[in-house]
Write a structure and sequence with these properties.
Elements (H helix, E strand, L loop, with lengths): L1 H7 L6 H4 L1 H24 L2 H29 L1 E2 L2 E2 H21 L7 H6 L3 H5 L5 H7 L8 H18 L5 H26 L12 H12 L9 H6 L11 H8 L7 H30 L12
Helix pairs in contact: 1-14, 4-5, 4-9, 5-9, 5-10, 5-13, 10-11, 10-14, 13-14
Length: 299
């Protein structure tokens, strides 16, 4: 317990401040390592890996097919044209792919790692906790089953919309995609931190919150009342996963600051998640976990 407490309550300046280039090199090396492990997982059994890859692609495509068929049948939904709906669905799929790219192996589902007592695996590593969580879930090969169809939908929509695409617009698109993915991860960490206090009861709470966001992200929220819409942009920030950033990028929302609201929301939720998670870590330093399972973790 004392070793755990000393690791968590350590106050040495992080290497990212004193040696930023060294931290970046280490980050890239770890991403390379975990990318290799991800590839080996698929290549170890090609038949099983291909089955997993195709099933994951089909599952994620099916998640947006219903809304796509509705848009095709009615030539759009509300104020959204058919091609704008395709853009929003592509945006939602790519954002989900980025979450899978960075948050695999129970980083996205952080309550599992906390509830199963696997956080000691992370604390035992000679690196900051933030770097471990940022690199351990790196899955570039597995997540491509989601990213590639999403990029295809985005490219298809942009080709049909005829937007004047400038480098600044592409940069804003990339920033918003990263922000939407960060919102999903931050929301998962906020609720997943409950597993510090109730490890058994809250072990799967992150999967429930992520699934809830995933199921609602494909719906355009235009026409909702202000109370319900406000709730879907704050307490349950599903509107920032695809609907609002797509409105801003496509010019449906004429506000000059619309393209920056999603990154701002991501920053606020990330700060809140960091605070809640840190408080949970301090509790974990005192109590540890009486529930341990080695399933679903790699170190």
């Amino acid at each position: 317990m004392e070793d755990r407490r000393s690791r968590i309550e350590e106050r040495d300046p992080p290497s990212s401040i004193l040696y930023p280039l060294s931290s970046i090199r280490r980050l890239l090396r770890l991403w390379k390592l975990y990318a290799l492990m991800d590839f080996m997982l698929i290549a170890a059994d090609l038949k099983l890996g291909l089955t997993y890859y195709l099933s994951d692609a089909i599952l994620n495509i099916a998640a947006v097919t219903g809304m796509l068929l509705l848009a095709e049948r009615f030539a759009g939904i509300g104020a959204w044209t058919h091609d704008q709906i395709i853009f929003m669905l592509g945006y939602a799929t790519v954002a989900n792919g980025i979450v899978n790219l960075l948050g695999g192996y129970n980083v996205m589902m952080i309550s599992r790692r906390v509830g199963r007592g696997q956080l000691d695996h992370t604390l035992a590593q000679p690196q900051p906790i933030w770097m471990a969580l940022l690199t351990e879930g790196f899955m570039p090969f597995s997540s491509s089953a989601v990213l590639i169809p999403g990029i295809g939908l985005l490219a298809w929509a942009l080709g049909r919309l005829g937007l004047a695409i400038a480098p600044g617009w592409l940069a804003l698109l990339a920033l918003n995609l990263l922000a939407s993915a960060a919102i999903v991860l931050a929301f998962s960490f906020i609720w997943g931190s409950l597993a510090f206090w109730a490890p058994r009861a809250a072990e799967e709470i992150s999967s429930s919150t992520v699934n809830m966001l995933s199921q609602l992200k494909v719906f355009p929220l235009d026409g909702l009342g202000p109370l319900l819409l406000g709730g879907l942009l704050t307490f349950l920030p599903v509107g920032f996963i695809a609907w609002y950033p797509s409105r801003a990028l496509l010019g449906i929302d004429p506000s000059p600051w619309g393209g920056w609201l999603t990154p701002l929301m991501a920053l606020l939720l990330a700060l809140l998640a960091a605070g809640v998670f840190h408080k949970g870590m301090l509790h974990y330093a005192r109590t540890g976990s009486q529930h341990y399972s080695g399933f679903g973790h790699r170190s």
